[in-house]
Amino acid sequence: MDPTPQLPSLDLFSLAGHNALITGATRGIGAACAIALAEAGANICLVQRPGTTNNSTRDAIATLGRTVKVVECDLSDLEAVKSIFPQALDAMGGEIHVLVNCAGIQRRSPAVQFPEGDWDDVINVNLKSVWLLSQAAGQHMVPRRRGKIINFCSLLTFQGGLTVPAYAAAKGALGQLTKALSNEWSKDNVQVNGICPGYIATDMNERLLQDPVRLRQISERIPAGRWGEPRDFAGPVVFLASKASQYICGELLVVDGGWMGR
Q1: Nearest partner of 126 among 194, 31, 39, judged by Cα
Q2: Domain 9-255 annotated CATH 3.40.50.720
Q3: Out of 85, 152, 167, 259, which one is annotated catalytic?
Q4: pTM confidence score
C-alpha cells in the first residue's frame, strides 16, 4: 500500500482529476454523496434506472463544472449489472478511481409471511449487484494499484431489525464482503470500506416516519436528538474516497447520531 502523501491536510481531501462511479444517486443519500464528490473535484458517472426523469443530481454536478455521465441500468437485472462498469469506463475515458455502491431497496413483511420474490429482489439489488460491481472495479483497480470502493451498509449490518429479514441478511453480508475484499486488495493500494447510515429522513424510511409510535421510539433512542439527513454523508464519503483515508481498510464507518453507542 502506498503511504499517505506528504500534502497539506486539506489537500488530502481533494478529488481533482478523479472519476467516480456511483449507484443510487437519483435522490437521498446517494444524491448528496454524488454532489459532495463533485464538490471535492471529482467527475461523476451516475447509474440510474431506465426511464428516470429526476435529473436534479446530474444538473447540480454540471453546475459545479464537473463532467457528469449517466449509465442506465435496473440493478435487479444482474446480467445488465455486468455491463455497467465497462460502460462507465467508456464514458469516463477509461479510468474509474472511486466506486460508491449506494443503491438499495427495502421490503417489509413479518418473517413468517415474507415473500420469496421480495427476498430475491432485496438480495440481488443490495448484495449481488454490489458484488458484481465491486469485482469489476477490482479487476480494473488492482492491476493499476489505486482505487477506492465504498459500500453503503446499514445499522442492520450489526442488528437484526424488525420485519426486514432480507434487508438485514443483505446488509450483514455486505459488511463481511467489504472486509473480505479489503483483506485481499489493501496490499494492492485499493481501499475498500463501508458507511453504515443510522436512521435517515429519506424515502426508504417513509413508513417509519409516518408511524407515530415507531417515530417516537426511534427518535428517543438517538443521542444526537434528531434523525440524520443526506447531507450528513458528504464529509464521510469524501473522506473515504480521498487520500485522507489512505490507511483505512475494511472499516465500517457508522454515521448514526450515536445510535450504536447506546
Answers
A1: 194
A2: yes
A3: 167
A4: 0.95
